């Protein structure tokens, strides 16, 4: 015997029922172990997250401080750059900007020549002035 309905009634030999019960108990124990492991892992991740948030705050403060220093220049306790070096750097920068300006004007002149006289626009007066200034410079 032993082959009856499912509501608390036996469906197999006592040995089969004992094996099923042992399997269920083992599955339950494994599920509990995995749950504990996940909880432990999550707790570790929460701690790491908190540590990283603090580190991020510290780095943001440090970045703001460094950015302010870069904007404001050296403080009163730090020596300023040599005025001669600073002037030379500014002269070099001015030279680069003037060269870019000359190249842009030459490009505009070429574009204007390629488009012909019928393509004159409202900005032509200003462009003429710039081109004349460039022609007059040594």
**N-to-C CA distance:** 116 Å
The count of DSSP E runs of length 2 or more, i.e. the number of strands, is 0
What is the global morphology? Answer: elongated
Order of helices and strands: HHH
> How many domains, in number, for the residues?
2
Q: Helical region count? A: 3
Task: Give the amount of beta strand, in percent.
Answer: under 5%
Rg over CA atoms: 41 Å
Q: What structural class do the secondary elements suggest?
A: mainly alpha
Helix share bin: over 70%
Uncertain ranges: none
Largest β sheet strand count, sense and barrel closure: none
Mean residue pLDDT: 82
InterPro entries: CCDC89-like
Keywords: Coiled coil
Protein name: TUSC1 protein
Question: Key terms for this structure?
Answer:
TUSC1 protein, CCDC89-like, 138 residues, 2 domains
Provide structural commentary.
There is one protein chain. The protein is mainly α and 138 residues long. It has two domains: 13-75; 82-118 and 125-137. It contains three helices and no strands. The chain has helices at 14-72, 83-115, 124-136. Helix 2 crosses helix 3 (124-136). The relative contact order is 0.03. The model has no long low-confidence stretch (mean pLDDT 82).
């Amino acid at each position: 015997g032993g082959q009856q309905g499912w509501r608390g009634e036996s469906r197999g030999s006592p040995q089969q029922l004992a094996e099923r019960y042992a399997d269920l108990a083992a599955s339950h124990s494994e599920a509990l172990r995995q749950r504990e492991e996940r909880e432990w892992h999550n707790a570790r991740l929460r701690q790491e997250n908190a540590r990283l948030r603090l580190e991020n705050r510290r780095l943001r403060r440090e970045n703001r401080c460094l950015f302010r220093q870069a904007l404001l220049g050296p403080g009163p306790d730090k020596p300023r750059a040599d005025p001669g070096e600073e002037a030379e750097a500014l002269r070099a920068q001015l030279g680069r900007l003037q060269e870019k300006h000359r190249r842009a004007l030459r490009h505009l002149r070429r574009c204007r020549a390629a488009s012909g006289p019928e393509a004159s626009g409202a900005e032509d007066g200003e462009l003429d002035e710039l081109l004349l200034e460039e022609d007059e410079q040594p």
